[in-house]
């Protein structure tokens, strides 16, 4: 396990730096991606080598919904296996990255729109560790999670994300983890092993979302329910979509947008991911 002394160097000096950290939206897909060597996990590992090494990682995961906003504030967050029906190998994974109470307090201090509660009970859920363990397998970079207030709407989450912008100047990698298109009720279970398979409406919405992101039409993405029946099929519930808004809200005027892992799988899920910066 990484010791406190080994990771203090990342957060003792969170002064501003010249280069802004990029912001990522990760389509995390199945929890099995946490242990599989596939095109998605390989891209996550490759991406970590292409971007600057962060001082810390802050994840907004679809799998931590709370009343109010919370942030993990423990020295060593536990690995949460928040799923069922998967092989024991997946449950055996322990991603022992440190946390950072100092960064948690700093993050809470820069969010002015709401009070952020220090959380000592959560940890790293599969929206976080299944992705981050491929990026930073040595678990030597502090990882924190910021919860999503389920009582608020899309505009609120987009606006709150803007308050996190200062962290990009301090070397913190902010990651939204969910899926743009996520309809588990319509999954084509017989197509799970295919590398790419999408229903027409899922392919259409994946293209629409990408076009709106590239064109900076964030207002339409915030009001996604106005995009028609296909959008409601893509987002039957918003928790996997909200992390995208946390990413988009952090886009600056000079940031370049690019996509990776751009595939529709199992009919009704997209792995499409976004890098800003």
TrEMBL record:
GO MF terms, alphabetically ordered: ferrous iron binding; oxidoreductase activity, acting on single donors with incorporation of molecular oxygen, incorporation of two atoms of oxygen; zinc ion binding
Record-linked InterPro entries: Extradiol_dOase_DODA (IPR014436), Xdiol_dOase_suB (IPR004183)
Keywords on record: Dioxygenase, Metal-binding, Oxidoreductase, Zinc
Domain of life, source organism: Bacteria
SUPFAM superfamilies: LigB-like
Domain (Extradiol ring-cleavage dioxygenase class III enzyme subunit B) ranges: 38-256
A Pfam family reported for this protein in Swiss-Prot or TrEMBL: LigB
Cofactor dependency: Zn(2+)
PANTHER family: 4,5-DOPA DIOXYGENASE EXTRADIOL-LIKE PROTEIN (PTHR30096:SF0)
Family the UniProt entry places it in: Belongs to the DODA-type extradiol aromatic ring-opening dioxygenase family.
Name of the protein: 4,5-DOPA dioxygenase extradiol
Species the sequence originates in: Pontibacter indicus
């Amino acid at each position: 396990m990484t010791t406190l002394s080994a990771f203090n160097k990342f957060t003792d000096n969170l002064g501003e730096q010249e280069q802004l950290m990029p912001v990522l939206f990760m389509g995390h897909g199945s929890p099995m991606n946490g242990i599989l060597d596939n095109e998605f996990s390989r891209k996550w590992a490759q991406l970590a080598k292409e971007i600057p090494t962060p001082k810390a990682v802050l994840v907004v995961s679809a799998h931590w919904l709370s009343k109010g906003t919370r942030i993990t504030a423990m020295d060593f967050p536990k690995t949460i296996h928040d799923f069922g029906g998967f092989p024991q190998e997946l449950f055996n994974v322990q991603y022992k990255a440190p946390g950072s109470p100092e960064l948690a307090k700093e993050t809470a201090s820069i969010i002015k729109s709401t009070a952020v509660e220090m959380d000592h009970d959560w940890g790293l859920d599969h929206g976080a560790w299944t992705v981050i363990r491929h990026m930073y397998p040595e678990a030597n970079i502090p990882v924190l999670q910021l919860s999503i207030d389920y009582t608020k709407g899309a505009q609120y989450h987009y606006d709150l994300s803007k308050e996190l912008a200062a962290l990009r100047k301090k070397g913190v990698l902010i990651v939204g983890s969910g899926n743009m298109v996520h309809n588990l009720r319509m999954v084509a279970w017989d197509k799970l092993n295919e590398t790419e398979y999408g229903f027409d409406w899922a392919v259409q919405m994946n293209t629409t979302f990408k076009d709106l992101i590239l064109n900076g039409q964030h207002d339409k993405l915030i009001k996604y329910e106005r995009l028609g029946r296909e959008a409601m099929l893509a987002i039957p519930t918003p928790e996997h979509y909200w992390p995208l808004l946390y990413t988009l809200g952090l886009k600056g005027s000079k940031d370049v947008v690019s996509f990776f892992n751009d595939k529709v799988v199992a009919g009704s899920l997209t792995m499409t991911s976004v890098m800003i910066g």
